[in-house]
Amino acid sequence: MQPSPTLHVTLLLMNLSRFTYTFVRRNTKRSIARTAYICLLLWILMVFIAHSAHAKVPAISQRIRPINLTQAQKWCDTTALHSLEGIYYFPSNECVVLIKANDRHPLLPPSCYHIINIESQNILIAPGQIIGYLFPTGDPAQFRLTLYSHITDGGLKKPRDYAARFSPQQAALTYDKPKTRIKFNPLALIPKLNRIIRISHDDPTNNIREGFIRIYPINTSSPLSAPMLPRYF
Predict the structure, then answer these.
(1) CA distances from 191 to 18, 37, 54, 187, 200 (A)
(2) H/E element holding 74?
(3) CA 79 to CA 57: how far, in whole Å?
(4) 188 with 194: CB under 8 angstroms?
(5) Is 27 helix (H, G, I), strand (E, B) or coil?
(6) Contact at 8 Å (CB) between 134 and 115?
């Protein structure tokens, strides 16, 4: 098994710290150099702990053996599913995916889930492509969602993290995309006038949540229990 990238970075930083200590010792007092060296080692240790605490997903998405919708339904029928597992429709990418517990990736915790593409309108997202991962948190309804944000001919790249919430009643897994808002109020340049007149605009479409809608198995108690599979599937 090859060393992890985090270990390579840590070794590189430690070698850099030795060089820094030698350079500083030759140009300053020994006590100051020793203090700087200890601070640098502590910083390296904090970086290593921070990187190790977060499960690292592959930089480029992996592809497993493709399965079709019928095979995915059969898998759901013959498996003791977790509450989160099942077949979902992902409107943002216009694809149908299977969410299942990790059973093949040795570097990821067994408690995480794979989001596997079954069928997609985008020809660059191949069947069997892992488009993301879900990691449990301290809240049973909250998950750390990792999705690949960049679609290329060479695969899916640039994984990004989101805070996701699963609702068994709604049969949906939703998340919010990060938003950057910049507001400019020209009236603020005029003294006292900005207190009299205030103009604001709120686009309701900015509050629409992204997410996955479960289409199988169907929760009969859910208001979304009717099949939502797109016609082209």
Answers:
(1) 58, 53, 49, 8, 19
(2) helix 69-77
(3) 25
(4) yes
(5) helix
(6) yes
Q: Find all residues with CB under 8 Å of 148, minimum gap 6, and list them.
A: 61, 131, 132, 156, 157, 158, 159, 160
Residue whose pair of structure tokens reads 């640098």 in the numeric block: 40
Q: Cis ω on the peptide bond leading into residue 91 (within 30° of 0)?
A: no
**3 state SS of 32:** helix
Query: What is the C-alpha to C-alpha distance for residues 1 and 150, in angstroms, rounded to an integer?
Result: 28
| Burial (CB count <10 Å: 0-12, 13-18, 19+), residue 156 | buried
Is the alpha carbon torsion for 206, 212, 215, 221 positive or negative? Answer: negative
Query: Which residues lie below 8 Å from residue 211, measured CB to CB, with a gap of 6+?
Result: 164, 172, 173, 174, 175
**pLDDT tens digit string along 108-165?**
777 899 999 999 988 889 899 999 999 999 898 999 999 998 888 878 999 999 999 9
Rounded CA-CA distance 128/65 in Å is 6
CA-CA distances (angstroms) from residue 64 to 45, 96, 105, 116, 187? 36, 16, 11, 8, 57
